[in-house]
Structures are given as structure tokens and as C-alpha cells.
Amino acid sequence: MKDDTSIRENIGRVTRRRIRVRAELLAAAHQVFTSRGYQDATISEIITVADVAIGTFYLHFRDKEDLLFALADEAFHILRAQIHAALAHSPNEAVIPLIVRTLLQAAYEQRDMFKLICTGETHLLLHARMQQAQQGLIQHFIPAFQAAQEEGQLDSYDPVLLARLLVGMLVWAMGLWFEQDGPEPEVVAEHILFMLGQGIVPPHSMTNTERSA
Amino acid sequence: MKDDTSIRENIGRVTRRRIRVRAELLAAAHQVFTSRGYQDATISEIITVADVAIGTFYLHFRDKEDLLFALADEAFHILRAQIHAALAHSPNEAVIPLIVRTLLQAAYEQRDMFKLICTGETHLLLHARMQQAQQGLIQHFIPAFQAAQEEGQLDSYDPVLLARLLVGMLVWAMGLWFEQDGPEPEVVAEHILFMLGQGIVPPHSMTNTERSA
Fold it and tell me: Packing angle between helix A2-36 and helix A111-118, nearest 10 degrees?
């Protein structure tokens, strides 16, 4: 019994250490990638920042690209977790506004990470992951649009295409923060929800002649 | 007098030939870039397709990148020209629906070119031009949103941010055709205009509980 316990404790210690070292390497990569850019970052600099030996690095990651993939997966995982938490904690709130607000807030908090993922030379490497994340988001919205359709509120418009267009606007909006920190995510969310809630083009919107006049 | 005329005719002939050769090089580059990819395309293949000597190539373009820039500029120029023509020919139509329909139709017709511009390794090279084209589009929409605001139809929402979000959705929608040819541009335009015209989220949109039920 005593031996069993100490083995369990030892395994626990090893596992905890592995988890901690992995987290330190990811944090160091995040810092080096976002400050120096992915292309110019070196594993040698990352292990220095993480204070980890090169052999330990290779226990966790195959190469620099593997590290980038792990970072991106973590960023998407955090987004998903925040959306799931919001849905679980506010079961009586309307789904679409809840996801729009939560997603933009979460993306804003991780904006340096998403800038790294979505721009520059990493964009190509992470293209498939971006597509997958967008698909996941679309799947969240589809049931809400289908419900609206069943209630006759979408005429004959396709709920799936509407969900895709909404996700497109959200993904594009996340890029607003790549160049500057504003506008605040709440402001962007409220503008999108205003558009989604009542439209933004008045029935008799301005014609070209009026514009030139 | 006779001499003057023949000089003028000669200059006209030289100019016409230069314009024709330039157009042939651009068409050849378009073909080679979109079939083989920008990175793998060679000037040697492009001049073979255009049936032009290498020395002639360098009268027109500095290098492969210069040719890519010229192609992208032409694609954006065609978009702008089609939007300006639509505005000029339909002075009594509402501006926003007119631009949305024209832009999506024009982008669809040039979808292989925009796929080349917006994806893969050329994406980085053309980033500044893409930004500039988006800014130009935003400027087209701002007066329409400002007019709606003056009529009290936008509450306190920012017409500039709404214009940016609309352009974001349009730019993203253009990417729908990079992987497959559908949905048709008219269908995408009508979905966006439905969203802009009356909103797509019903006032009492489905809650999370209803979704799980």
C-alpha cells in the first residue's frame, strides 16, 4: 500500500512537471513569436526564455512548426471553451447575441495570438485550422437560424448561408485589432447585433443621385 | 504636313503595340500563375505563353513580382470600374444594394484572379493593395450610412464602423468561391441584402435552453 501511494505520487509529480514544462514552452513561444515574428524566432531563443534544456524541448515538440500548431490549437481551444461556458452559464439568453459578444471579447483578449495565426507567413501553415475553427463556429449558429426559419422569419433564405456570412463578418471583425486596439469588442459586438437585429439599410435608402446632389 | 502625319501614325503604332504586348504578358501571367501557382511560375514560361522575347518582357516589367502587382492592380481596377459604371448607369437606385450586387458579380467573374491575390504566398505581397482596395470600398458606403444616420435610422451607431463591417462581410464572401463555384453571386448578394434590410435575428431569438430541449 505504501509503495502504491509513493508510485502514484511519483507519477503525479512527473505528469505535473511535464504539463508545467509544456506550458512554459508554449508561453515562451508565444512571447518570442509575437515579438520577433514566427520566421525569425529560433528554438534556441524559446528554450532560453522558457529556461528548458534542448533535449526537454524535443520531448514535447517535434520542431518550431509543431509548437506553432500547439499554440494555435490552444488559442482556438480557449475560444471554444469560453463560448461553451457562456452557453452553459446563461441558458436563458438568446444564442446568437451571446456567441457574438463572447467570441469578440475572447478574440480581443487573445488578439496578439490571432494576429500571429491569421497574418504573415504563419497564415498558410494554419489555414486548415482556421477553416476548421470557422466551421465549428458556423455549426453553433446554424440551429438558431434554422429555428428562425421554422418560425417563418427568414422567408426562403438559407439559414446555413446566413450563418456562414455572419461568421465571415465576425472573423473579419477580429482582424480590426491586428493594427490597433480599438474599437472595443463590446462596441463591435453591439454594432453587429444592431445590424443583425433590425438591419442597417433603411427601406428607401439613399440613391446615387441624392448622393451626388 | 505629310511627315507630321506619318510620325503621328508611327507613334500610334508603337504605342498600340506596347499596349498589346503588355496585355499579352498580363494574360499569360494570369494563366501561368493561376494554373501553376505564383511561386512555381517562371518568367520563361510566361514569355513562351505570351510569345514575347525576354528583352521585351523587361521593357514592361521589372520582375515576376512587378507582374503580379500589375495583375492585381488590373483586377482591382476592373472592380472599381464596374462599380463606378453601375453607379453612373443607375442614378436612381439605392447605393448600398447596387454596390453589393455589382461587387459580388464582378468578384465572381474574376474569382480565379482574387483567389490568386488573396490566398497562398502572394497574400503577403499584396496585403497593402488589399487594404487599400477595402478602404476604397468603405469610402463608397460611408455617405450612404451617414445619410441613414442623419435620418435617425442608425440610433447612435457609428456609420463608419457599420461600413467597415459590411465591407468585411463582402470581402469574406468573395472567398466563398475560392474552394467551389457556388453559391451564385446573386444568391449571396440577396442574402446579404436581406440581412442588411431587416436583420436576421428575430427579436425573441431562440435561447440556449430551447436549443438543448
Answer: 70
**Cα torsion A51, A57, A59, A61: sign:** positive
A210–chain B Cβ distance below 8 A for any pair:
yes
A145: contact with B, CB 8 A cutoff: yes
Residues A48 and A97 in one domain: no
Give contacts of B 112-131 with A, CB under 8 A.
120-121, 123-124, 127
Domain of residue A132, residue span:
63-201
Residue A207 domain-assigned?
A: no
What is the per-residue pLDDT across B52-88, written as a single tens digit (0 to 9) for each?
A: 999 999 999 999 999 999 999 999 999 999 999 999 9
Contact B201 A148 (CB under 8 A): yes
**Looking at CA atoms only, how far is residue A14 from chain B in angstroms?**
40
A30-72 pLDDT per residue, tens: 999 989 889 999 999 999 999 999 999 999 999 999 999 999 9
* Domain match, A122 and A186 both: yes
B109 in the same domain as B163: yes
In a domain, B211, yes or no: no
Output the domain CATH number for residue A20: 1.10.10.60
Show Cβ contacts of residue B20 under 8 Å, excluding neighbours closer than 6 positions.
none
Q: Does A137 share its domain with A187? A: yes
φ, ψ for residue B189 (rounded to 5)?
-60, -45
pLDDT > 80? residue A10? no
| Nearest residue to A97 via CA among A157, A164, A186, A202 | A186
Among the residue ranges B131-135, B189-193, B207-211, the one predicted with the least confidence is B207-211
A208 domain residue, yes or no: no
- With beta carbons under 8 A apart, name residues in chain A contacting B153: 202
